[in-house]
Amino acid sequence: DGRKPANPAFWWVNDEEQEVKWTFEELGSLSRKAANVLSEACGLQRGDRVIAVLPRVPEWWLLNVACMRAGLVLIPGTSQLTAKDISYRLQASKAKCIITSDTLAPALESVLPGSQFLKSKLIVGQGSRDGWLNLKELL
Asked: In this protein, which residues make up the domain named AMP-dependent synthetase/ligase (predicted)?
């Protein structure tokens, strides 16, 4: 019909040439689903704080949009944070949820019992861990 295809809303490529493209419609739908996961499965409410310690994976951007939709405050953290750094951020922010990758979760677990505000733990990736919710499964 002569029309150009729509530009993607999100286009991610990693070093292994893996590629993720989302249209605006897909990003909207996925972010609504992720916002529901945060609100319902994680039990978070508008104004609650969420710490994300993730490498730059597509879910990083998806969760940013989902937090905005749900009215949550996202506190980004690099995967280079130490256990002491994470413990400080958990206590100072009174975060109720922490989100991390399946590869980083074991390193974070040592500091999580000391956080009296933490209600839920969400993992991004294929793996599963006891006590953690899996974002992909919940989406």
From this structure: 3-127
